[in-house]
Design a protein that fits this description.
The protein has 327 residues and is α+β, with helices and mostly antiparallel strands. The protein is 52% helix and 13% strand. β4, α6 and β5 form a beta-alpha-beta unit. The chain starts with 8 loop residues before the first helix and ends with a helix.
Length: 327
Amino acid sequence: MLEALGIQQSAETVYRLMLDHPEEGVAELAARLGWSQERVREALGRLTEARLVAMEDASGDPVPFNPEVSFSFLLARAEAELNRRRRDVEQAERAVADILSRYATGPGSGPAHDVVERVVGLDAVRRRLEALAVGAREECLSLLVGGAQLPDTMDASQPLDQLALERGVKIRSIYQESFRNDQPTVDYVRWYCELGGAARTVPVVPLLMVVVDREAALVPVDPLDGRAGALEVRSPGLVHALTVLFERLWESGTPFGEAPRRDAHDLSPQERELVMLLGIGCTDDIAARRLGVSLRTVRRMSSELMSRLGARSRFEAGARAVKEGWL
């Protein structure tokens, strides 16, 4: 349970036993666990590096530090790492948006036709997606916005996914956490994961995207208007940037089939995202669209978060969230 803080399971086992029996030394701990003393000392070495225990210089027996102080340090370090990764993702999103904007204004504004091509019309976009899927040799990465996926989209994707997986193509997809509320989408993801695909969820997916073999990518011309068509990108630099964005989101995502991990403040990733949205003044409507959930769900979540913070307004909730270390 403490692996997210860099503490291996064996070290955690020894640490918990030490707290229950602070008077016991290495020999007694080893006897209780049925381990060798060498194995216990190895675990204690890792606990020492994590600043959870100190070793007595005379007897060599361990002495735990104050857990409140030790874990405050570890949690702060883990939180700093999460914030760094979040900033990296945000920077990648801004870079991608800046690059895409240069190709969305028509002929003459970007590189040659064989680097970025505009695909006009929903039917043309669907046909291009199918062609890319059929031609995939090694890998297909997808970002899927919104919660529930359209039934006709899943029906069209199912045979393509099955053929690709049977050819040995690795398929990884990132969905918004709100998709868990739609049983047909959950069933579809479970089906293709059982065939060998992989899926993770994040609170917010920034844009619809497919990257094939890290050579070509399909992204919307306008993320807010799917009818505007798509851009097929083959510029190595841009495809690399889109792939980095995917990998950053993948690292922070929750594997399909697992419950979203709650942070040190008992916030789920979706709740944490909502706190951030409320903190920057987003309305319930905007927050609901960002999270891919209903307005009713956002209002319920907001009410629960405000109650936990003891706040009577959004502004007060934002201020308290910062004060409590939630943001």
